[in-house]
Design a protein that fits this description.
Blueprint (H helix, E strand, L loop, with lengths): L5 H4 L3 E4 L32 E3 L4 E13 L9 E5 L8 E5 L3 E8 L8 E3 L23 E6 L5 E6 L4 H4 L6 E6 L8 E10 L13 H4 L8 E4 L6 E5 L3 E8 L8 E4 L3 E6 L2 E7 L10 E7 L7 E6 L6 E9 L28 E8 L1 H4 L11 H4 L8 E3 L17 E3 L4 E8 L5 E5 L4 E6 L7 E3 L1 E4 L4 E7 L4 E7 L2 H5 L3 E6 L1
Parallel strand pairs: 1-3, 2-5, 3-6, 5-10, 11-14, 13-20, 21-24, 23-31
Antiparallel strand pairs: 3-4, 6-8, 7-9, 9-10, 11-12, 14-18, 15-19, 16-17, 16-18, 19-20, 21-22, 24-29, 25-28, 25-30, 26-27, 26-29, 30-31
Bound molecules: CU-O-CU linkage and copper (II) ion (CU).
The site of copper (II) ion (CU) has 5 residues, from loops.
Length: 494
């Protein structure tokens, strides 16, 4: 819902991400010589940085199909769906305190909306069709406007038919810079995403019953910033901040920068006391910011790898370029603290949230019934495999809203006990809030803030919030096939 502070209009900067024309204003005070200079060279047209100097950052996001190349020749370009003329695109960079006004233009054949993942924003701007706004129909526009309260690495994506739309690339990056962040020599974005493509460049099936009822359907091609094993150039001997995003719909990754000492400095955009990067699995939608020193001489390389699977997989190469920057001591400093309200744990009721397979889906084994239309045979909705507190989101979209999972009293603190009753991983995401991650019955938890937490099989994990942000907020698994087949609900804060 547009609110238009008149004072901001005079100082606005208009940026257009949908068309070819891109008016990027000066990098007012960001302290970055060339954001994403390296990543720009990595595949396709590269990410499109959007930065602005004024109080208001305006951007137009035209969601539509665009033919873009993911696979090398002889494969053809692929019919991606994007918010800009490239993948990834756009990368919106703004400073903490700036206001964002983003206009979604729906150039798709279906309704859509934009959800601003990880941002503690007013409920009306949250972008969930039917729950927080009417769906934006084909040809329509919708204006979002808010001032992100926290710095960090965020992103945005649609919230209906996400399995196909995100599968085809519909996502963008929103970076909110700390005014007083420790200086770095380069700040790069790495978006890890698989694509479901055949050899010719055509998209395959994004959702299968077999995948949806288990770990999900994995893509066939792994990329960083839409490129297969790209080379990302970084200044030789420079300190590099890399914002590592898992924007895949299915895959869990555990990233390493091989050959360098790398430190995690933020999780889901939230500052973390620096700790070595050696085991921080990220489910879909999870992000970490890492800091590392680029190799001292031009031409030397480091590797970004995913070590989650038995076979470590190379994802990208960081290659040092340019004259060696002067030697300085490499010492990761903590990012400035965010202002996430501290939950009062003494006074906090414990809300159980149980993630399970639906009773009927549990009772059959699809593998044992090859070729059987088991869903029909069992009168089970083919699209409901999962539940939260035994409640499944109704099949077929958001039109029929179920009651909230729980209603919380505004201003009180709550502990959610997230119980995974399944043998699969589930990255659990809350809208409009940032969890304080407290403890697990299965592992030692590093205390941190996050908007998405990876629940291990059979694990019970406790997270807390202070319920200060009123509204109806989605609460769901971010493995998109799980989300779309029932593992989704919402909490009400009133
Ligand atoms: Cu990125 Cu409802 O989620
Ligand atoms: Cu899940």
């Amino acid at each position: 819902m547009p609110h238009r502070p008149a004072s901001a209009l005079s100082r606005r900067t208009l940026l257009r991400a949908g068309g070819a024309a891109f008016a990027a204003a000066a990098l007012g005070g960001t302290g970055l010589a060339a954001p994403d200079a390296g990543a720009l060279k990595a595949g396709l047209a590269g990410p499109t940085p959007v930065t602005a100097a004024g109080e208001l950052v305006e951007v137009e996001l035209v969601a539509k199909e665009r033919m873009l190349r993911i696979l090398p020749e002889p494969a053809g370009p692929s019919p991606l769906i994007t918010y800009a003329d490239s993948f990834p695109g756009p990368i919106i960079r703004m400073r903490k305190g700036q206001r964002l006004r983003a206009t979604l233009v729906n150039g798709l054949g279906e309704h859509t909306s934009i959800h601003w993942h990880g941002i503690r924003l007013p409920n009306l701007e949250d972008g969930v069709p039917y729950l927080t706004q009417p769906p934006t129909k084909p040809g329509e526009r919708h204006v979002y406007e808010f001032t992100p309260p926290d710095a960090g690495s965020f992103f945005f994506h649609p919230h209906c038919n996400t399995v196909e739309l995100l599968g085809r690339g519909l996502a963008g990056v929103l970076i909110v810079e700390e005014p007083d962040a420790p200086k770095v020599d380069a700040d790069v974005v790495c978006l890890v995403k698989d694509w479901q493509l055949d050899k010719t460049g055509k998209f395959g099936t994004f959702m299968t019953d077999r995948g949806a009822s288990r770990a999900g359907t994995f893509g066939s091609v792994s990329t960083v910033n839409g490129a297969i094993e790209p080379v990302i150039e970084v200044p030789a001997n420079g300190d590099i901040r890399a914002r590592l995003y898992n924007i895949d719909s299915t895959r869990v990754v555990d990233l390493r920068v091989e050959g360098a000492e790398a430190w995690i400095i933020a999780v889901d955009g939230n500052p973390l006391p620096p700790r070595p990067l050696d085991g921080w699995p990220m489910g879909p939608a999870m992000r970490i910011d890492v800091l590392f020193r680029a190799p001292p001489k031009a031409g030397q390389t480091l590797r970004l790898t995913n070590v989650y699977s038995a076979e470590p997989r190379p994802l990208a190469t960081f290659r040092a370029v340019g004259p060696s920057l002067p030697n300085k001591r490499f010492k990761p400093r903590a990012l400035p603290a965010s202002a996430i309200p501290e939950p009062d744990l003494k006074d906090a009721p414990i809300i159980p949230m149980a993630f399970s397979a639906t009773a009927v889906a549990q009772s059959f084994d699809a593998a044992a019934l090859p070729g059987l239309p088991y869903a029909d045979a069992l009168c089970l909705s083919a699209k409901t495999f999962w539940a939260i507190n035994q409640q499944s989101w109704p099949e077929g979209g958001h039109e029929r809203l179920p009651p909230p999972l729980v209603t919380l009293e505004k201003g009180r603190s709550y502990i959610f006990e997230l119980a995974n009753l399944t043998p699969h991983l589930h990255p659990i995401h809350i809208h409009g809030y940032t969890f304080k991650v407290l403890s697990s019955d299965a592992r030692k938890v590093v205390p941190h803030h996050a908007d998405t937490v990876l629940l291990e099989p059979k694990e019970r994990l406790r997270v807390a919030i202070k319920a200060d942000n009123p509204g109806d907020w989605m609460f769901h698994c971010h493995i998109i096939e799980h989300q779309d087949t029932g593992m989704m609900g919402y909490i009400r804060v009133a």
